[in-house]
Amino acid sequence: MKSIAALQDLVTPWSDGLEPSDAELEVIEQELPLILAERDLLDALIPLLDRPASEFDARRIRRAWKRILVARRDLANHTADTPMPGDVA
Description:
It is flat, with a radius of gyration of 22 Å. The model has no long low-confidence stretch (mean pLDDT 84). The protein is mainly alpha-helical. It is built from 2 helices and no strands. Helices cover 57% and strands 0% of the residues. Helix 1 (22-45) runs antiparallel to helix 2.
């Protein structure tokens, strides 16, 4: 019996399209504060999966939510000020 894998390349060839473009990297950099704020919220919530929340945990979660809201506001204000590609000034 023939193996199907023998008829295919064993290693996926590297494609130039796998790397993010400069524009994509710039967008990721702009969204980084929001990404980090969401990570902080997850860091605050994960320990609560197996124990009740203390006052310290509640404070940490509130602060993380505040950082997320500030990062979302800043990102929305930044994108509102940035002209879209193709817009005529």
